[in-house]
Design goal:
eight-stranded parallel beta barrel, globular, alpha/beta
Length: 191
């Protein structure tokens, strides 16, 4: 199971960043749209110092991702980015989007469960239907949206690499405990 922690897009104390980065996650997406370019660059550098081997994605700022040598996540309305310049992550809300996102290294299939402001949930059956329709894939396929330690196991599918999570990890006082519970629910394996 691959666990991607996505930052909550609000001010987070330095100690919380360290707790999440050291919690056993497999990757981190920095989604701090309110930060200036300089602050985002500084944050990315600090995270790289704390966890030099952790794959990191920058959400919405290709310039910052390139400057730091990190992966880039382009949101729903972001134009296509050539896959040759860096690793690319994109959202996938329906199988109809797959054609334009097939060069991505990571797809976040969402929202699986209800999340305020994120549109209609696709549900577990919808997630599995999308996974079944995706041709052989070289990148990671992750589920996102309303996932927690109680419902994560129900998402399992032979094509699904794991999950992406925001609130469940960042709102926890013990992020490593959440990661452990997710892995236990999934079957204990780490990617």
């Amino acid at each position: 199971m691959h666990i991607l922690a996505i930052s909550p897009g609000r001010d987070v104390e330095a100690s919380k960043w360290a707790d999440v980065v050291k919690s056993g996650i497999d990757a981190l997406m920095i989604r701090e749209k309110h930060l200036s370019v300089r602050s985002l660059l500084d944050l990315g550098r600090r995270i790289k110092e704390i966890a030099p081997n952790l794959p990191i994605w920058i959400n919405g700022r290709l310039d910052v991702a390139l400057a730091l040598g990190l992966g880039f996540h382009g949101g729903e309305d972001y134009p296509q980015v050539p896959a040759s310049i860096c690793e690319i992550s994109r959202p996938l809300h329906s199988i109809a989007q797959l054609r334009e996102r097939r060069a991505s290294d990571q797809l976040l299939i969402s929202p699986v469960f209800e999340v305020p402001g994120k549109g209609e949930a696709i549900g577990i059956q919808g997630l599995h239907k999308i996974l079944d329709a995706i041709p052989p894939w070289r990148g990671k396929l992750l589920a996102l949206g309303g996932i927690n330690t109680e419902n994560a196991a129900a998402l399992r599918h032979h094509r699904l690499d794991g999950i992406a999570m925001i609130r469940g990890i960042w709102d926890s006082t013990h992020p490593s405990g959440i990661v452990d519970k997710l892995r236990d629910a999934w079957g204990g394996n780490k990617c």
